[in-house]
Amino acid sequence: MKPIQKWSKTVAALLLSAGLAACGNQSGAQPTPAPGGSEGNAPTELTVALDWYPNAVHSFLYAAEEQGYFKEENLKVNLQMPSDSNDPLKMAAAGKVDLAISYQTQVVQARSEGIPVVSVGALVRHPLNVIMTRQDSGIDTPQKLAGKNVGYPSVPLDESVVRNVVKQAGGDDSGISFTDIGFDIVPALTGKKVDAVVGGYKNHEQLILEKNGIPVHAFAPTDFGVPDYYELVMTTSDDTFGKKQQAIEAFMRAAAKGQQYVKDNNEKALDLLLSKQANEFPLEKDIETKSLEILIPLMDAGDKTFGSQTTESWQTLIDWMKKENLITQDVKAEEIMREVVK
């Protein structure tokens, strides 16, 4: 899981700069062209910040672009990679980008701090974060984590997850220690620097560890009392949603077509993704192939349209995070999500 931070000052500064820029351009402001493929209208441009470097979870976006689904909706979509995984939500809040992929837990945290962000669609519908131990460690059940040292990316959420899992499994969490390993999940477990790790994903770090000859036990938090939640969501700001709701709805329609294409054409979608990989973050084809296999069912909305989300999911997570003191201010599901998917 990527970090949950208190961003109020940073976002306030971004909001101020964005507001000043908007004031300076008021006289030349133009109405947003209507999306939906209307002939003669210039395409509506949307800038979308990824949550991380391009990888299997983003395949639907590249498919929608390559197959012309964005163009069919009269959209010109610009995808950009962040320099830090905390940046996309901040940028969306400040109007620096129109849309950003973020984490349901981060959106709850931000909204509880009064930051004006909302989710417009659930992308990965279930958690990817798992607690991992080496198979040769003898820690083959969560209760055996009692008294052990757990590596984590200094995220309070992850500490709460581990303690909940251990207690739910019948163990004693009082003696567990936590070591900040940043996002060096793989090296920490490979080098036996800690007894267990949390914050690694079953479609990424777990696959890399196993490829490198380190088989692991992976404990899914949702099997031990942690609520099911959306790992990734598509977000925007209150202001952007008010101005570009039609374009955002069109974007999500095109995204749904992109995800369907990925389901129907795994190999082609993967080849397209590999052609878009960032030079500084090269992809391993076998890892991304397995990752996509894991992700496709987790992104499937069943009899609902791709991107659908429910108030129940949001409120359940909000209530759990408040119980765990991960947020201190009340926030309601209706404030934090917009159901744009039809």
UniProtKB/TrEMBL annotation:
InterPro entries in UniProt: NMT1/THI5, SsuA/THI5
Keywords associated with the record: Signal
Gene3D superfamilies the record matches: Periplasmic binding protein-like II
A single BP term in Gene Ontology: thiamine biosynthetic process
The UniProt record lists the keyword Disulfide bond: no
Signal peptide: 1-29
Protein name: Putative hydroxymethylpyrimidine transport system substrate-binding protein
